[in-house]
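WARN  no MSA supplied for this record, continuing single-sequence
INFO  ligand: adenosine-5'-diphosphate
INFO  echoing inputs
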Amino acid sequence: MKRKAIYPGSFDPPTNGHLDLIERGSKIFDELIVAILRNPEKDPLFSVNERRQMLESMTGGFDNVSVDTFHGLTVDYALRVEAQAILRGIRAISDYEYELQMALMNRKLQPGLETVFMMPAAKYSYLSSRLVREVAQLGGPVDCLVPDLVVQKLREKMDVANKFGGAAGAHESEARSADRAAAERKTKSRKRKS
Ligand code: ADP
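INFO  complex generated
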């Protein structure tokens, strides 16, 4: 029997940490499906289609990896595509509690389905999509954190947000006013000293 796994997540955006895990997973499973959760309650930076396109380009070099989307219970999706395992990443001890709860709940819902945890290379163990979004929105460099095509997509998003005064624009002006306040504090303390 072929060993098939799904790798579910938000991937908003996909990072080098996700890619590291996909590469490791592709070596131990005959088939790996990267499954993007369509969650109407979350307000993502990238649409499901954008995330799908990025992941498809990133995984084009792996013969046994495909990309799909799903909504609802992960275990139902796994059954539908006849996977025997759910692949998840553990970066630090902080991931463990949540991942353990989810794995045990999934086991309760579907006892035949295994959750397999893998650890990324140590250099990606601090990396998360949320951090990448925050650094990008504040104008910081993200080129070592995500593949080039994601850097490009993030730039495009930030340009649009800045143009229309979106979240990135707001973050930028917050950062500028914090800088200004710090400069004013310095000048005042210099005046006091002199
Ligand atoms: P979710 O909202 O389901 O946590 P994510 O896209 O944030 O979706 O993560 C999907 C999976 O990938 C999770 O198991 C997460 O622990 C794992 N993951 C995220 N970032 C990394 C990383 N840098 N290294 C290894 N695994 C990661």
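The radius of gyration is 20 Å.
INFO  checksum written, moving to next record
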